[in-house]
């Protein structure tokens, strides 16, 4: 009986314990359900986003750069489509996985050119060796060294970094040089993959991908995680001749390659604008100036990744769009003809002119500021071959400066009117000027021209007339033979420069290109330099400034901003023709000179006489009188400042010309600058100008005839 009671008592305890356990399980299960409910209802959306993260990634290489056309719609710079192979690195990709993909891809494509292998650095080889040979790499640092490092005050990361550093340093040259060519090819691919950014496509190969490579990779994409086949573009110049010379190449500028990516000095700026590191951008001049227009709109993708970081799918958020196209103000046929004229004449004189190596022509529409041609040629000796090559130096029209001589005398005469020291038809005596303690200052006719007015002074290019204007502006109203020159040199040159600046001489022209010079404006050491300034023998100017100056005289006193871009057009990729006008570049008046209109017209008469009067300094050199050309010649003694190494600075001559036509309704204004001749006897400046005007008006007639035929 007692045993039965004990058994029942044990059973009750067991039932109680079982019930207690079930109750506890029920409570725990209820808490779990409650917790799951909270997770699903309250935090479910957050966890869902954690599992399927959405990352917006701009995809490069899908937006072709805008193209560049000349004023008649002829392609100047375009894009060639090219097959490409890219790699997109996921967030969970390991180096070992990239090695495996690289080894497989190396069997399908060639990436062993001299450029590919040369890009591999010693550091690349060291990292690659450590990954390829982990056991051998681990032995480079002994266990004792590792224990000592771990026992030091260094953090775990610092310890790992130090072990890695020692491992790298202890890899021998023999081990690094043991890589075979096929292994280096794998490394060339791997280094491209390793340098890519997470979830951002990076080109493994985008040059010379042949159709067989493209097809083979496309068929095996399932074996190549992250690899894709796509189409990229290559910038090319449509006007490259058989010698590889490119018309206007120095002005058009360059675009970085996908390897170069963003320039380091502008990295933060471009990244703030949404660029990726490997985006191609304009590096110089026109490509740089209009980067924001030429750069296309990237395709924006939304990548869905799982919790491991693998991309599960992609959606297009915004389609890409090609960059907008530029239409230049320059007719490329006229540009090329001007280049030929410069090269022909400079080449013909180089044999007798040791220092002569370049020539420039800037041509503008004086009414609008449109740059009709900006041509420059430079003869450059190749140090390796010893051969002389003719290079495009159009950029020199705005980035180099020279003493321009008498071409600026129109500005000197107008400054004289403005400062009240002479007036139209004023007569001054041209004779040798003797100042105490200095060499006499004369005109090219050393005996002097006698009593002459301002128009005669321009026609015959009198130096003395200009000296006397500068003296008066500097405060000395009368010339005293054998006396001291008592002008205020600083005040005189300040007033002259102020007036010259109104024409664009000594200030930036405002052309829509970066990097133009202002010329050199030194402080005059003596009063004689102020006189030299008045005949173009002190300050220096660029050929483009000279063209802007004569344009200002030609159009009646309006300084026009030179423009090399005429229009911005919407892209039209379907038929490679110009799209709709997005923006027209309107003429921009920078300033109206303060001289009276009648004064400007009077100087215009002087410029007409220079070319058309029998005694004009350009009369015999400018033969195409039918075009109604007005202008001014210039000859300046100048110190040589070119690339040749000289023991002493030799005296050379700069021959220049400015002009416009027709003089009763100007539509073209030009400057011609030929520096560093051995003699002033040549008329190369006038022959070039004559042929440039002839080429322009013949081109215009030809285009009219073609238009009439179409009608």
Automatic annotation (TrEMBL):
GO terms for molecular function: penicillin binding; peptidoglycan L,D-transpeptidase activity; serine-type D-Ala-D-Ala carboxypeptidase activity. SUPFAM superfamilies: beta-lactamase/transpeptidase-like, Penicillin binding protein dimerisation domain. Coiled coil: none annotated. Pfam families: PBP_dimer, Transpeptidase. It catalyses: Preferential cleavage: (Ac)2-L-Lys-D-Ala-|-D-Ala. Also transpeptidation of peptidyl-alanyl moieties that are N-acyl substituents of D-alanine. Its EC number is 3.4.16.4. It is found in: Cell membrane; Membrane. The chain crosses the membrane at residues 20-43. GO terms for cellular component: plasma membrane. Residues 62-314 form the Penicillin-binding protein dimerisation domain. Keywords: Cell membrane, Cell shape, Cell wall biogenesis/degradation, Membrane, Peptidoglycan synthesis, Transmembrane, Transmembrane helix. InterPro entries: Beta-lactam/transpept (IPR050515), Beta-lactam/transpept-like (IPR012338), PBP_dimer (IPR005311), PBP_dimer_sf (IPR036138), PCN-bd_Tpept (IPR001460). It is a single-pass membrane protein. Residues 359-693 form the Penicillin-binding protein transpeptidase domain. Pathway: Cell wall biogenesis; peptidoglycan biosynthesis. One of its GO terms (biological process) is cell wall organization. Belongs to the transpeptidase family. This is serine-type D-Ala-D-Ala carboxypeptidase.
